[in-house]
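User: Okay, second chain of the day. Same drill as before: sequence in, structure tokens out.
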Amino acid sequence: DPKNADAYNFRGDAKIWLQDTLSGIRDFDTSILLKPDNFYFRIDRGYAYLDLDSNNMALKDFKYAYQLNPKKYDASFYTGVAYFYLEEYDSSHAYLNKATDIDSTVSNPYYYRARINYIEDNYNSALAEINSAIKLVTEKAQYYVLRAKIYMFNESEYDDDMAIEDLNKAIKMGSEEAKELLAEYFSEGDA
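Assistant: Same drill. Structure tokens below.
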């Protein structure tokens, strides 16, 4: 049915899953044309735009979804993520905080706030945020890689051992980035 917005959105999701993002976005465009105020259509298209690094376009959809329903976790979280990739860290932080206010049991906002604090050299705050994320989800290699980076740049002499421990955990989870960081760490130590 050419007027079935849900069918277009479903087909768009399928195309995204098949890694045909541009074609998926065209289907999301049609679904939104037919139902402009559908929260989930906006989230789906925004997520596809993030996948293409079209962060301004993603932000427009996520903010629209947020206006439709500010009490939904996805609207706050993804708006924060879009702002993160646009390097608008204060706005990102604000929306990530809103996401945590809605659901404090999800680790992703803590992770992104840790990344912001790390970028801004606020290592103690970054460490607190990533520790909160790891308490919630212990099996995400990127969490241990980020914590290792935080430990490496902290001034404490004991942090290098903790960084190595975290990198080894991430390597066991299959992280190539952790392997590279560990190799780089030991090559610098030999110089």
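The two ends are 67 Å apart (CA to CA).

User: Thanks, on to the next one.
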